Amino acid sequence: MSSTNDTSRQPRPSQMGGGGGASSIIILGIESSCDDTSAAVLRDGVLLSNVTASQAVHEAYGGVVPELASRAHQQNIVPVVDQALKRAGVSKDQLSAIAFTRGPGLMGSLLVGVSFAKGLAASLGIPMIDVNHLQGHVLAHFIKETEDDTSAPPFPFLCLLVSGGNSQIVLVRAYNDMQIIGQTIDDAAGEAIDKCSKVMGLGYPGGPIIDRLARQGNPEAYQFAKPAIAGYDYSFSGLKTSFLYNLRDWLQDDPDFIEHHKADLAASLERTIVDILMNKLRRAAKALKINHVAVAGGVSANTGLREAFQEHARRYGWTVYIPKFSYTTDNAAMIGITGYFKYQDKDFCPMEAPAYSRVAL
Prior knowledge:
Blueprint: E1 26-31, E2 37-43, E3 46-53, H1 66-88, E4 97-103, H2 107-124, E5 128-132, H3 133-139, E6 157-162, E7 167-174, E8 177-183, H4 189-199, H5 206-214, H6 237-253, H7 257-288, E9 292-296, H8 303-316, E10 319-321, H9 332-344
Helix pairs in contact: 1-2, 3-9, 4-5, 4-6, 4-7, 5-7, 6-7, 7-8
């Protein structure tokens, strides 16, 4: 999450007003790391608008097609930013800075957002703030919808960051001080869900489909492998293999097995993944003596995982932080709030800063 400071590029005084007083900080956030084009406007950390354009074109291919994603971003970026500003009641001349996702993500998608941010910032003469996408997910808990919103977790806290590409346990000491203490050594939890859904012929994205079916099934119906990995790291490749091989054997006996048992399969798969995630998180919380525990990322929308967090709050005395559904998927509000924190530290980035496809917290 390092960035290059450029304290010489200060905002013009006229851009500090924004209708919220002389000290107001108005941030435009831009997110384009994968297949969602999103823009948000925040004033002093309070969300004024959050507009996202999704891309349905990928459903036919069973996954995100990078070239199609970047083309769709090019079509969506201008109207999405325009709508975010209009809904916020803010003109571009009132902006203090532009925060953008610099990475990680799909390079073609990132380049659209990065290039747009650079062009707009240069035309307005205001700073740019680069944001690590993963850091943004963690800091989504600090998005304020009202000025008196006090729902953010205190430092330090643990955050389980789970998405299609990441499964990590993060120790958060400050907005700019995060340490990954455990992460997947192969597949991410969301990736495992999507691939198992695809094997069952249920469609893409698999997360919402598996979640819906799991509510109708028996989570104890089937047992799948839970890889034993040292420390707080995760592994989901063994689970995928176990699921695939079991399904192959069951289909030999009953060609319609999936159709007859898809709810139980979904519930058992979800239960296994949630158990793997929570076991390591519980151990980490106990070892570090931290009882403020958050969840973030796309898989944090999963009903079973949310219920597990509530159960752990009751059983272990945790104070849990579960994001609104609108902040679980990729969104610009989380980029904007991260940009707001970095703006206060004058942590800006130079115009020549490139996008990056891979990076850790």
